[in-house]
Amino acid sequence: MNDNRKPTILITEKRTLRSCISKHDLSTFNIIRNHDPREVFSLVSIHHPDLIILDAEMDEVSGYDLLRTLKSFYKTERIPVVLVAEITEDVEPCLALELGAIDFMIKPISEHLVTAKINNYIKIYHSLLLLEEKAHYAKEMNPNTGLPGNMAISRYITNALRSRKDDVVVYADLDNFKSYNDKYGFGRGDEIIKFTGGVIASALSEALGDTFLGHIGGDDFVFVAPADEVKEIANNIIYNFDQKIRQHYCEEDKASGFIISKDRLNAIQKYPIMTISLAGVRLIEHPETTRYEVIADICAEVKTYAKTFKNSCFYMDRRQGEDFRKKYDMAFSTVT
């Protein structure tokens, strides 16, 4: 559905039906007329109609049979269909409705009535599509942050790769989050995750180009931004994160600069205040791939390297050095 175009109506009719429908003022619609029911499916694929009007009785095939076929295929079952017929003993309005028609009209058709009905049916159809779209995206949203999840992330980055956009994919991960979660509890941990998503979203909102933010899960996020803006965006994220993260600690932990918690071996350890690591990959530097998984693997490798440093930092993949350290260009790192 495209809200900027006229709604499209596909009318499959006998010659006698054409004269009846054409006298009405349907100038607000894009009308596609057809006299061969065998062409309906190809016309649907080409024009994506918002409504189909069928003549109940045609020479080649019954309108009822065509309606039954339309409602049996996934790509056409949701399109509203109106059957139009002459007043005869063969008229079967109940059958038409049982087969899935949204209405059954008897000729002659009132001009004002048919226009009003068509408008209503198209509005209902568009509302249904919008609800389905929202439901589809709701399934992909992370329940904690409400941000797009893995499927949406994969789809966006794959499209960016195919379109050869000069974007940078950045993985964001929190350092020392597990120890915070262990001490303060999952509820406070969820607050940190929402806080982090908000910090990233705020920085992206100031960008001039198109951006995207997704939540992989846990304390892992991914965002996409134009290459010429990504360093400034990352700088804002790091600055605001480092400035505000201490608000989520108790006074004792803020004063000491660390928390005391047990590690995976049940040994007591000191863990510094959380920092954020950002790992970026510029898409145009990888023209050999259109696969999101390849970019994800590179980001994960860069992120592993970035997390070896104690401060919040942003690293861009360069892949030009002789050793691992020279493969990466550190854009900046904050000092706490």
From TrEMBL:
Coiled coil ranges: none
Family matches, as Pfam families: GGDEF, Response_reg
Domain of life: Bacteria
Sites bearing 4-aspartylphosphate, chain numbering: D55
Keywords (A to Z) from UniProt: Phosphoprotein
Presence of keyword Disulfide bond: no
Membrane-traversing stretches: none
Residue intervals of the GGDEF domain: 165-294
GO terms, biological process: phosphorelay signal transduction system
Residue ranges annotated for the Response regulatory domain, each copy included: 1-122
InterPro entries given in the database record: Bact_response_regulator (IPR050595), CheY-like_superfamily (IPR011006), GGDEF_dom (IPR000160), Nucleotide_cyclase (IPR029787), Rev_trsase/Diguanyl_cyclase (IPR043128), Sig_transdc_resp-reg_receiver (IPR001789)
Stored SUPFAM superfamilies: CheY-like, Nucleotide cyclase
PANTHER family: RESPONSE REGULATORY DOMAIN-CONTAINING PROTEIN, STRESS RESPONSE REGULATOR PROTEIN 1
Function of the molecule: May play the central regulatory role in sporulation. It may be an element of the effector pathway responsible for the activation of sporulation genes in response to nutritional stress. Spo0A may act in concert with spo0H (a sigma factor) to control the expression of some genes that are critical to the sporulation process.
Name under which the protein is recorded: Stage 0 sporulation protein A homolog
Lineage summary: Bacteria, Bacillati, Bacillota, Clostridia, Lachnospirales
